[in-house]
Request: fold
Amino acid sequence: MLDSMLWWLTSPFDYAFMRRALVASLALSLSAPILGVFLTLRGMSLMGEALSHAILPGVALAFMLSGFSLPLMMSGGILAGLVTVALAGGVTQFSGLKEDAAMASLFLVAMASGVLIVSLSGNALDLGHVLFGTILTVSSHTLLLVALASSVIVMGLAVSFRALVVECLDPQFLTLQGRHAGWTRALFMLLVVLSLVVSFQTLGTLMAAGLMLLPAAAARYWSQRLEAMIAIAVGLAAVSSVAGLLVSYHAGLPSGPAIILLAGLGYGVSVLLGSCRGLLTCRYRTKLDPNAELGN
Reply:
């Protein structure tokens, strides 16, 4: 029994492509969920999802012009993401439209443009590669780019961590301290775009936000402390990545969707059983003490 379990856990990683996929998914798990925690605290979860689609035109245009050149596709995705963020900010500032509404409008246009550009390249299979990713085909060169980008994101978060926390809670206070909140926000959005762009090779533009947002949303049902939420989100993302690769290998399923579905399962369990605001946990506490406040 123990030998069978050990074989089930270790045999997939006898292959180099599985080891590369494991390292790439773990690298993303160490950076993306932290950004997701800050997005959820800011009430900007849908912004991350919108940006994951908004990078598609840049990726698609770079693909059409240069073929499958990952550095150029990443550069195009970053440029498209930043342009979308800037346009959404401009629409919000000059028209009064809420930023999430502006972003929703822009990302739909951007996504349609990206699909059209990829379709004009004449190969529908390439569209599926860009939209859904192929984590099992990650090369050593791609793995290096993923690891480097994840390291940059983690270092950027470490350097700006205190400013990001203050900016989430009170942007005016940050400005009064001599630090413009706009620059902190711009840095944060740059890191989000970078994370989403580096994720498209493994999970695709349609699911790149899954590993960022699902573990972060789940973590809020287990703790109200920022440090604990970050640790829980990273842990859930890592477990989902490893388990998703194992399940996809043994069951013959696509790896990217398997990882995201397991992250979604973790979110569902957290909604029900989370120690802070889980539905069943709150009901149990209410039965024990009818005067107890939900979520406490």
